[in-house]
Amino acid sequence: MAESALSMEGMNAVVDSCGDPPSTPCSASKDGCQTGGEDAHLESLLKDLGLTTEYYTKKLSLSTILEINEKTTTDEPAKCKSDLPWYFLKKLMMGNVTARNLKCASVCESRCDDTSVNTELDFDDLLDSPDSGDVLNPLDIITALFLCSDGFVQQELALKMSLCQFSVPLLLPNCDTNHCTLMLWAMRDIVKKYRPQNLSESKGFTEERIVVSELPMISFVRLGECSLSKSEILNKLLSNSQQYHDTFVHHDMDCGDSLRRISNGVTEITWYLPCGNRNMDVFSQPVAVANLRGDIASFETQYSFLCQTSAAVFVFFDDLKSEFNLLPNKDHKAQIFLVGNHQNKNFNFDAVKEVATNLGLKKDNIIIKTKKMNDADFVKSLRKTVIDVVEKSEMKMSIEQMVVVAREFGISVDEDSPECQAGKQNADAITAEIQDILKYKEDQLPLQGEIWKELTRLEKEEFRLKKLGSENIETYKSDLQIQKSKLRKKQNSYDISTAMTRFITAISSQGIERCYFLKWMRMNLDNVSRIKLSGLREQYKEKCKNSENKEEIKEIDRQLSNSSLGTEHFFREMGQIYEASLCLPETQESRRQLQHLPKLCAQLLLDGFPVELVDGDASNIPLRWVSDVLSQLSDLVSPKNKILVVTVLGVQSTGKSTLLNTMFGVQFAVSSGRCTRGAFMLLIKINEDVKRLLNCDFMVIIDTEGLKSPELAQLDNSHEHDNELATLVVGLSDITIINIAMENSTEMKDILQIVVHAFLRMKEVGKHPKCQFVHQNVSDVSAHEKNSRDRKLFLEQLNEMTQAAAKMEKKEENKKFTDVMEYNPDTGNWYIPGLWNGNPPMAPVNTGYSEAVFDLKKNIIQLLGRCESSANNIMEFKEWMTSLWNAVKHENFIFSFRNSLVADAYMKLCTEFNKWEWEFKKEMYTWVIDAETKISNFGTVAANSETSDMSELLTSLKSEASALLSSKETKLQQNLTEYFKQTEGHVYLVEGHKEEFSNSAKTLRKEMERSVFNQLTTAADIRQGMTEIDRIKENHKKEIEKAVCDLIDRCRKKKVQMTDTELDKEFNKMWSKTLKKLSFSEQKTTDVFTRVSKCLRANVGHKGSHACQLLDEKTLKDCGIQPFKYAGSFKRFADKVISLFNFKSHTMAVQEMSDSIIDACTKFVAERMERKTNYHDTYIQEILHMIDAKLHNNQDLKTDIEFEVSLKQHICGFAARQFQKMHEDFIQVNDPYRCLIKNKDKFCADFKDVFQERDQCQKKAEEFTNQCLKPAVEDFVNRHLGTDIVGEMLTIQTFSVRSSFQYSLLLDLLTKNKFEGYQSYSRSYESYAKKWILEQIKKTFSSSSTMFKFEDQHLKTCISRINDAINKARTGNSSDLKTFVEDICKELGDKLVISQDALGNFMILNKADQKQFAKWLTASVDDMTKDLREKFEKSGIEMKLKHLSVQPENELFTRVVGCGKQCPFCASPCDAGSKVHDQHWASLHRPKGLGGCNYLFTGKLTTDICSSSVASDGHFISSATNYKLHPYKEYRKMYPDWDIRPDVSSQASDYWKYVMAKYNGTFAKAYDAKPADIPAAWKKITTKEAKQSLKVSFSIK
Ligand SMILES: Nc1nc2c(ncn2[C@@H]2O[C@H](COP(=O)(O)OP(=O)(O)OP(=O)(O)O)[C@@H](O)[C@H]2O)c(=O)[nH]1
Ligand SMILES: [Mg+2]
Ligand SMILES: [Zn+2]
Ligand SMILES: [Zn+2]
C-alpha cells in the first residue's frame, strides 16, 4: 500500500467516507473547517479527548505519564476517544512506531458486530462509514498533547517521536488564538549522530544536538487545495528504496483521513541524516524538512517564517489563483518552487506561468506532475530538485537561530518562560567556566577526586587488611582510621567552590525552575564533554574488539573517566561535602548549614531524577550520604514508603539503559561506548489503582554500569568492581534483569559467572531475588520455540557456573542453578529483537523491539505483584544497602554479611520459639507435680488410683507423659510451620534456621522426657521404700494404742480419781513395757558409695578397658576430698610452647572447664540435699549426664580419658559422700523407733484426754490442720512457685532472648563500672552469669509483692479445695471420724501430699466427735490460712528460693546460656538462639588480652580481636592445630562449627576496646603481664559509644 500511488478516485472515496459534505469535491477540504466561525475548537477537542481544562492550564507532567497504573500493562486497545491520548503516550514512551495508529476499538467492533448480526447481504452497508465523530486525526491528538504538556513532557514527546522517526512540531499553533510557538525547548534534547559525505572516508561522524546544527531546511507548503498528498510524497521523498517509513502523518494512515480540527497551522519538522553510504543515502548531506499543515492562505505567519528560515519552499497547489500574493515580504531568503499536479482537472497552466513570471521564477523552479508521471517518477524529480538546492544553497540555519525570525513574526518561543530562562542562566553561569574538564573537576569538585578514592581504598583496606604485614592488627586498623579522619579533615579544609555554591543554590530553587536548571545543566555538560567523549567512546569500542591493545584501552578508559562531567559529578561532590561535614563538631555552623542537603536530594529523587548509588569511578558508595538521602526520602513519602526494586545487569553497551528507558519511559544516560558508570537509582510512582496489586508505593529502578569481559577487566582490575556491583544490585533487587546480547556468547559466559555468584551469595544470606534473562538482538518471531535447545544449553551453563561459584564460596551444597534460585527456563527467558528497524541514523525503532519490551514489562510487573515477601520499605532498602555494601568490602562476602533486618527476624523467631518452649515446659512441670503427688499418695488413704501395683502406676504415668510430650512437641512444630507461613516480619530471611529450631523442639522433647521419667522413677522408688517403714510404724502405733486403751480400762476400773502425775506415771510404765515388747529391727542404710561406683562404672565402662582400669586404681571413698587439680597430664612441652604464643594455656583452660563442671555439680548436689529426700541412683546418673554434656561441649579442648575418669571420680566422690549423709539422715528421720519416741508426749496427752473424757474436737482439729494439712499446703506452694517465678522473669526483656540477656549483662557491667566485674566475667562466664541471674531474680522480687501474690494465689486454691473437701465429707455419710478424715484426704489426694505418719499419729486415740470436729476443722483451717499468709508475707526471698522444686535461676540460665559453647579464640559465648545448631557464633568478640593472653616476647597483653584476625593474613596456634601455625582465614578448617564474622562496622567491638583501654593496667596486674599497647583510636571511644556499640552488636533497638 505504501508504495502504490493513490488514484484520485481513491482519495475522493476516502474523503467522502469522512462524511464531508459532498459539495466539497476534493481532499483539500481537510483543513476546510479550520477557519470556520466556531469558537473554542480547541476546548471541544480537548473535551473529546478527555483532556480537561485542568490539563490545559496545569499541564501534564512527566511523573503523571510515567507512573504505573492499570493501563500500563493492559493490551486492550483504546475503547473511547478519551483513551486515545493515553494510548498514544503509552506506546510512544515505549518507542513504538505504531503509536500513531489511533483508532477506538469500539469503531471497529461496532462494524464487526453489525456484519455478524446481519445475515442478509446489505450492500448499502459496505458504503457506510463509521460516524466521523468517533475518529480523530492523529495529528490533532499529537497537537492536543503538546498543548497540554509541560516543557519536560514536550521534550520527552519530541525525543521519542524523533526516535520513531516521526516528524515533530516546529511551530505549534493554538487554533483558537491563532498564536504560534517555536518549539525550541521541546527539541533541545534531541541528539543526532550521522556521517556526512565528507566524513565517509575517515569513518568519522558528527554527533550534535539537532537544534544547534546549522542545516539547510526545505519546507513544503500547500496553497489552496491540492490533490497531491504532500505528506505522503514527503514520506516517499525521505525514504530510501528498501524501506518506506511514515515520517509524516498522511491521509492514508489509520484515521489520517479524518478531519483535522486543531492541527492546521502546525509546522512539523524532520531531518534527513546520511549514514555515509552513497548507495543508501537519499541525500548525502543532512537536511531538515519542514511541513506546514493547512493552507498557506490561512497561515501566513507560519509561511512567512518558513520563507525566512528555509533554503527552499515548495508550494503545492492545484488551482493557482494569480491574485494571491505568494510572497508576503520581498526580501525572503528561500527559493520558491511551485509544485502542481497536471493530473488534476483544476490545474491551470496559464495561471502557473503568470505567477512564475510575476515572481521571476526560472523553469527549474516549477515542478509539474505530468499526466504520464507516476508517484515514483514524481518523487524522483522532486528529490533531484532538493539535492540541487541543498548543494547550492548557502542558506543554513539552526533552530536556535530561528528564534530571531520567530520574534519578528510575533511567534513566541517556548524557551522564553521565566523559569526556563532562570534555569538556563544558573546553568550557564556554572558551565561557562568550564574549559578543561579534568582541571575543572580538580578545581571545582576537589572532594571527589583523589581524596575520595584514597578514602575508599582505606575503607576497603580496613576490612581486607591486605597490607598488614607484621604489624599488630588493631594498631594497624586504628592507624587506618586516623588516616581516614585526616582525609576527611582535608576535605573539610576546602571552601565550597563557586561552582558548588551555585549548584546548591540552584537546586534549592523550587518546582519547575529546578527541573529546568537540571535539564540545562545536563544538556550543557553533555555539550561540553560530548565532542571529546563521543570520539573516545568510538575509539574504545573499536579497541575493545581487539583486546590486544590493552594499554591503549586502559588509557582511553582513563581519559573517558577524566573527560566525563555530568550532573552526577556535582551530586557526588555534594555527597562528599556532606559526609565530610559530619566529621565536624555537631555545633559547628558549617556543619549545620549542610544538613539540609540529603533532603534536597531526596526531593529530586521524588521528582524522578536518577541518583547515583554507586560511584563507579571510586567504586564505592558514600554510605552516610546515600543513607541519609534515603531516610529523608522515607520521611517525605511516609507512610507511603513501600518499594519494589528492578535492576538490570549485563555486559557493557548491550543496551541496558536503553531497555530500561524503553520499558519505563525514563532517561538513564544512553550512548554507545562505556557510559553508565556505577549504579543509578530512580523512583517511579505507582498509581493508587494498582497499589493493591503490587503492594507498593514506588518502583525503584536501578541502572548499572556494564560488566566487563575478563580481558578488559584484567586491565584495570575492575573484576572486583564488577563483582561488587553485581552483588550489591542483585542483593537490592526484587527482580534482576540479566541483559545478554546474543552476539558475544563468550563474553556472556563470563558475565554469567559474576551474576550467578551474586545470586548464590544472596541465597546464602537469605535474600531471594528473582531473575529474568533477556536475550537481545534475536529477531525471529519464533525465537522462543527455536531457542528451546539453546535454553537447555544455557541452563547447563548456569549449572556449571553455580558449581564453580559454590566452590569458591565453600557452599558446595549448591549444585544446580535451581538450587540457588527459583528459575524456570521457559518463563525466565525473553527474546528481544534488535532496536533499530534498518540502519541508523534514519532507522526508526523496531516495532518488534518495543513490543517485546512491553511483554517483558508486563511480565515483570506481574512478577513483582507475586513477590511473596511484602514489599520492603525505603528504610529497609537502606538497611540492605548498608549491610550488603559493608559485606562487599570484605573479601569473604557470605561470612561477612550482617544485616539488622536478618538479625531482627532471627530475634523475633527466637522470642517466639522461647515462648512456645516455655509453655511446653511449664505444662510439663505442672504435670510432673501432679504425677509426683499421685505417686506420693499411692497406697495411702489419699490414693485415688485404681491400681494397687506401683509399677503399674508408674508405667501408666510414663505413657501418659509420653503422650503429653508428643502432643506438645507436635504443637511446637506446628507453631513453627505456621510461623514461617506468615508474610510479615521478613520470616523468609531466617528460613534457613527453620530446621535448627525444629531439631531444637525434638531435643527439648527428648530432654524433657528423660527428666520426667527420672523424676517419676525416683518418686516411685522412694515411695516404695517408705511403704515398708509406714507399715512398721502403723503396727507400732496400733500396739501402742492397744496398750493405751488397756491402760485406760485398767485405770477406769480402779474407779479412783487420778492426778495428772499419776497418769503420767502409769503411762510411762505402760510405754516402757510396750516398747520392750515391740521388735525394732535396725533400719538398714545403703552404702551410697557402692551404688555410685556402680553407676560410674556403667557410665565409663563402655569407654574401654583402660577406663575401667583407671576406675579400679582408686576407690571412690578417697575421691573428691582434695580440690580438683588438673596437672596437664600430656604434651606438657607443647603446652608451654603454646602459652608463649599468646594463647591461653591448655592446662589453664582445662582447669577452668573442670572448675565450672564441678561448680555446677556441687550446686546440683546441694539442691538435692536441701530437699532432704532419700538417695536415688538417678541423682548420680543426672550428674554424670551433666558432666558428659559439658565435656562434649568443650571437645575443642582436647582432653584424654585419664582426665575424664579422674574428674568423674572426683565429682562422684564428693557427691557420694554428701548423698551418703543425706541418705543416713533420711533413714534417721524416718526410723520407726525414733518416730515413736518423738511422739511419746503426744500419746500421753491423748491418753489423758481420752481417760478424762475431755472434748478432743478442737485439739484434734488443730492437730490435723497443723500436722497434716499445713505441711502439705506449704509443699504445694513451693512446688508451684518456681515456675511462677520463671514465668514472671521471662516477661522481662532481658530474658526474652539470648542476645537481650547478653546485652543487659554487658550493659550492667558498664554501668557498674568495676574492674572486678569484668574480671570475673572474663574468668568464668558461666558462674558470673548464674550469679547475675540470681541477682536479677532477687531484684525483681524483692521490690515487688509479685511473689506474695503468687503464693497467696496458690494458698487460696488449696484452701478452697480443702474447704470443699470438708463440706463434701460432711454431707457424705461417713460413719465415723476415721472415714470422715479419709474422705477428706481422698478428696485432696490429687493435689496435696498428706504425710501418712502424721495422719497415723492423728488418728491414734482419737475419740473426737465427727460433727464437732468438722466444725472446729473449718475454724482451724481459717487460722492456718492466716498463719501461712503471714509467713509468706514475712519470709525473705532467699528463704523462699531455697525450697522451690524448680530452681528459677537454673531454668533461666539454661535458657540464656544457649549451647554453652565459647569462641575458641576469645571465649565469647555463642549467641545462637536455638538449642541445636551446627554453627556457633558470637555477636561480639573481645580482645584476647582480656582473657590474659600476652605476647611472646614483650609479655604485653594482646589487643588482637578474633573478628579482626579472621580477616587478616595472620596465623594462630592451638591444640586444635596440633600446635602448628594455621592461617586465621582458614580457621574454619580447625573449628568447622564456628562462624566468626569480621567486624563489619568496625565499631562493633568498641565496647571491649573501651573496657580494655580503661582497665589495661589493672588487667595486666591481674594477669601478671605488662599492659597492652592500646591503639590510639581505642582511647577515643567514649562510654556513650561503647554503649551504642553494644546496641548495634546485639541488634537492640
Ligand atoms: N544495534 C543495536 N543497538 C542497540 C540496541 N540496544 C541499544 N543499542 C544501542 O547501543 C548503544 C548503547 O546502549 P546503552 O543502552 O547505553 O547500553 P548500556 O548497556 O546501558 O551501556 P553501558 O551502561 O555503558 O554498559 C546505544 O547507542 C543504543 O542506541 C540493539 O538492540 N541493537
Ligand atoms: Mg547504561
Ligand atoms: Zn572470638
Ligand atoms: Zn552455639
**Mean pLDDT rating:** 85
- Uncertain runs are 1-39, 108-118, 1139-1143
Q: What is bound: which ligands?
A: guanosine-5'-triphosphate, magnesium ion, zinc ion
Shape: elongated
The proportion of residues forming helix, as a percent range, comes to 55-70%
Distance between the termini: 71 Å
Structure description:
The chain has 1597 residues and is an alpha/beta fold. Helices cover 57% and strands 7% of the residues. It has 65 helices and 21 strands. Helix 19 packs antiparallel against helix 20 (473-493). Residues 1-39, 108-118 and 1139-1143 have low confidence and may be disordered. One zinc ion binds at residues 1458-1459, 1461, 1470, 1472, 1477, 1480.
What is shown here, in short?
The chain is 57% helix and 7% strand.
Please write out the topology.
Elements: H1 8-17, H2 41-48, H3 53-58, H4 62-66, H5 84-93, H6 105-117, H7 123-127, H8 138-147, H9 151-163, E1 168-174, E2 179-182, H10 184-187, E3 191-194, H11 197-200, E4 206-209, E5 217-223, H12 230-238, E6 267-272, E7 287-295, H13 300-309, E8 312-317, E9 335-341, H14 349-359, E10 366-369, H15 375-392, H16 402-408, E11 412-413, H17 418-431, H18 437-444, H19 450-464, H20 473-493, H21 498-507, H22 511-544, H23 550-563, H24 567-581, H25 589-593, H26 597-606, E12 611-614, H27 623-637, E13 642-650, H28 656-664, E14 679-685, H29 688-694, E15 698-704, H30 710-716, H31 718-732, E16 735-741, H32 745-765, E17 770-776, H33 783-786, H34 788-808, H35 817-820, E18 829-832, H36 847-865, E19 872-873, H37 874-888, H38 893-896, H39 900-936, H40 950-981, H41 994-1054, H42 1060-1077, H43 1088-1101, H44 1105-1112, H45 1132-1140, H46 1146-1171, H47 1177-1193, H48 1201-1230, H49 1232-1238, H50 1240-1251, H51 1257-1290, H52 1298-1312, H53 1315-1323, H54 1325-1343, H55 1346-1371, H56 1377-1388, H57 1396-1403, H58 1410-1434, H59 1437-1442, H60 1448-1457, H61 1506-1509, ...
Parallel strand pairs: 2-11, 5-7, 5-8, 8-9, 9-10, 13-15, 13-16, 16-17, 17-18
Antiparallel strand pairs: 1-2, 1-6, 3-4, 6-7, 12-14, 13-19, 14-15, 20-21
Helix pairs in contact: 12-15, 17-21, 17-22, 19-20, 20-24, 22-23, 26-27, 27-37, 28-36, 30-31, 31-32, 31-37, 32-34, 39-40, 39-41, 39-51, 40-41, 41-42, 41-49, 41-57, 42-50, 43-47, 43-48, 44-48, 46-47, 46-48, 47-48, 51-55, 51-57, 51-58, 51-60, 52-65, 53-54, 54-60, 55-56, 55-58, 63-65
Magnesium ion is lined by residues 656-657, 675-676, 703.
